[in-house]
Specification:
about 45% helix, dCMP kinase activity, 3-stranded antiparallel β-sheet, about 240 residues, 10 strands, Rossmann fold
């Protein structure tokens, strides 16, 4: 039986808590594509800086830490991984210490320059293999992959996003409360949208998709429809026995 396979790049952008990671992984799995969580890359650099006891407000020190990071990203949507010097840090980068510092680290121009270059390399690498790639983050459609065949900007109310973040934190074993998470969501929105380097914003040719009232299957259905409309499916490349 033939399975539809993605051709090219799908860019999913939007603020924290819109469901990007969940739907991006599911979408990539369903379409035989690679998957890249660029936010995890910034979290990994943040973790490295914190481990080195670098003050995230010290731009030069953060830049130095970023230059020395040994970061490796796994792009299999079934088993995505984030490694620092060979150590899997997927769980640790979701902790409150990293969450509270990642926006400041992400705003450092050198950090963005280094990671954007690596993100583009991974996208090119995936383009050379059968199937495309689903990339999620905050500047994919505007900076990292402006040539993407489909750009979608996911949104949701801040309250809905705080609820999702609280549930996600609980799943990772990190205790938190809704009110505190809601305040953090608003704080990160402000930091991400006001930074000088690659601020969070919707690409001019992106499709905005409000996920406030949608569950994961509902968001995926909308994404599949958009991908079909853009002609980004190849039904010939992979066969399921």
């Amino acid at each position: 039986m033939a399975q539809s396979v993605l051709r090219g790049t799908v860019a999913l952008d939007g603020p924290s808590g819109t469901g990007k990671s969940t739907v991006a992984r599911r979408l990539a799995s369903e379409l035989g594509a690679a998957y890249l969580d660029t936010g995890a890359m910034y979290r990994a650099v943040t973790l490295a800086a914190l481990r080195d006891r670098v003050a995230v407000s010290d731009v030069e020190a953060v830049a130095l830490a970023a230059r020395s990071v040994d970061l490796e990203m796994g792009t299999d949507p079934g088993h995505p991984s984030v490694s620092l010097a060979g150590e899997n840090v997927e769980h640790e980068i979701r902790g409150p210490a990293v969450t509270g510092s990642v926006s400041a680290v992400s705003a450092v121009p050198v950090v963005r320059e280094l990671l954007v270059a690596e993100q583009r390399r991974l996208i090119r690498q995936s383009a050379e293999q059968p199937g495309g790639i689903v990339v999620e983050g905050r500047d994919i459609g505007t900076v990292v992959a402006p040539e993407a065949g489909l750009k979608v900007y996911l949104t949701a109310s801040s309250h809905a996003r705080a609820q999702r973040r609280t549930a996600q934190d609980a799943a990772f074993g990190h205790g938190t409360d809704l009110e505190r998470t809601h305040a953090d969501v608003r704080r990160r929105d402000n930091l991400d949208s006001s930074r000088e380097s690659s601020p969070l914003r919707m690409a001019g040719d992106a499709v905005e998709l409000d996920t406030t009232e949608l569950d994961v299957p509902g968001v995926l259905a909308q994404l599949h429809k958009l991908i079909e409309q853009r002609g980004l499916l190849d039904r010939e490349k992979r066969t399921i026995l």
